[in-house]
Amino acid sequence: MHTSAPAPQGPPPYQAVGKHAVMPQTRHDEAARFNFLANMNQYLSAEFLPRVKRAYDKRALPRFQAQHGRAPEHRSEVRELMSEEPAYQTWSAMRRATMEQRQQAGRSVVLRQLDRLNDIARSAAAEPGLELTPGFKPPRYLTGVDHHCMPGGYVGELAADDVSAPANYDVGIFATTGGALGRYSDGGGTAVAEWLKREHPDFKPKRILDLGCGLGHNTLPLAQAFPEAQVVALDAAAPMLRYGHARARSLGVRNVRFVQADAEAVPEPDASFDLITTCMFLHETSYTAIRRVFAETRRLLAAGGISLHVEQPQYQNMDVYEQFVRDWDAYNNNEPFWTTMHDMDLTQLAVDAGFQREHTFETGVRAVVDAAVFPQAAALAKRQEDYGRAAAWYVFGARA
Ligand SMILES: C[S@@+](CC[C@H](N)C(=O)[O-])C[C@H]1O[C@@H](n2cnc3c(N)ncnc32)[C@H](O)[C@@H]1O
Questions:
Q1: Which ligand 1 atom is nearest residue 153's CA?
Q2: For residue 178, which of 42, 86, 99, 356 sits 20 to 30 Å off, Cα-Cα?
């Protein structure tokens, strides 16, 4: 008889998601849609994915071993093998479908109130802290790709002063993470801030740079953890910055400037930041861009400063089946640089950018959730297994 760990409880209700002035409002049926998707995603990751693994262990792997006299040595062999397994086919199709449904549900919520949301962001833009560059051209890898099925990607605009992309991102992320990133979807930034306070208690950054800040989910915890610091939240996408700025002001965070620029060429002087972070950003760039970003990080970091890159784990030294599961996004979720980035040697990249090898380090953080409103997610966070492959993050760092 098969025995497994007790099933985790379902995600918290959508009503627990943190609200702010520019957050799209949801009606009963819209919230119900997100609740369904959050539960379906949790079911897919916590209940269905272990069955996919059993299909691999019990059927696919023995079949491969009988044929080749060895186990698969590369994730591409696992992918080929599993593409014939009904359990994997079903899991993959459903996962893709829930992502498309999330985008559709989020877009329909946002589009019916877009004028109001754009007005809120426009009013906030009259206050300090938003620095857009008219005529700015985002890098090519951000245009023409609907990243994780998001229509128009991060840079798409439907109207003047548009915030539809980040509003959709913010309202829908709960459906994908099921609350495992906290009520404000800021569990990664909170975890990084906690790690810094624990590991470097005397570190008091005066200037912080967050590259590819998006709508600032993981920037604000740093700004709140270091309220004396000036924080530059940099992104190429004007909609993300407009929304992020309005959101930050609504949440009472004032020490952040939201700046439109290319992380490959940051308009700031050498050695002008004590802390430089990225969160789920490197995988959205390109082979050339990532090298430039590392070089910029080295140039911008002051002596004694710390740079931290938060991503899903790298593939080196990872079991080939786990690599195959994690590489799903590259093939099915519009993430064109995902595979290449996760195969890269980040230590070598940092050394090539001018960091000392002995000043690089790796660690991990687990997204921090608000136990008061997300008790189930907090319980999940204590478990070793990261079913959704979303809450246990890898951190690559380098000190100047
Ligand atoms: C997956 S989002 C991550 C957002 C945020 N860091 C977070 O943790 O929620 C990646 C962000 O990187 C931005 N980005 C990608 N390439 C960039 C570049 N070269 N310069 C500035 N921003 C960039 C995108 O516009 C997008 O907002």
A1: 25
A2: 86
